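Long-time lurker. I teach an intro course on protein structure, and each term I like to show students one example going from raw sequence to a predicted 3D structure in token notation. This year I'd like something fresh instead of my usual example. Would anyone be willing to generate the tokens for the chain below so I can use it in lecture? Attribution to the forum is fine with me.
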Amino acid sequence: MIAGFWWDNWMANVPGIEKMLRRVAESNLRTRYVAFGIQERFHESIKHIVHDFGWKCLPTRERHKVTHDRIGMSDLDSDTLEVLIDGHQADIDLYRYAERLFDTRVRETRLDVDIGLPMK
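-- Reply from a regular --
Happy to contribute to a lecture. Here you go:
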């Protein structure tokens, strides 16, 4: 599913489909989600999600599917990295949009609540 639409291979040939889906996905982030987080800012995201949902305590969490020997982007050769970026540019662009929107919400909230998590 992409931006709330079931994807089918024929859609790849529709002119402007990626731009339209990105606009829908960005709109969904702005208007349909009470809260969302950014993986690289996990603790800060949890802090804001707790606030946005009005929770009084931090939900319990367990780490699942932890990969200890995962390679990082810096471990990839330039050709592999280029193929990955080219194939996922729409996802990368949406993630960057989400980061900017998250930053805006953080600034607007000015949240200073200690929920017991270290802020990294």
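Some talking points for your students: The two ends are 32 Å apart (CA to CA). Helices lie at 17-31, 42-53, 78-87, 89-109.
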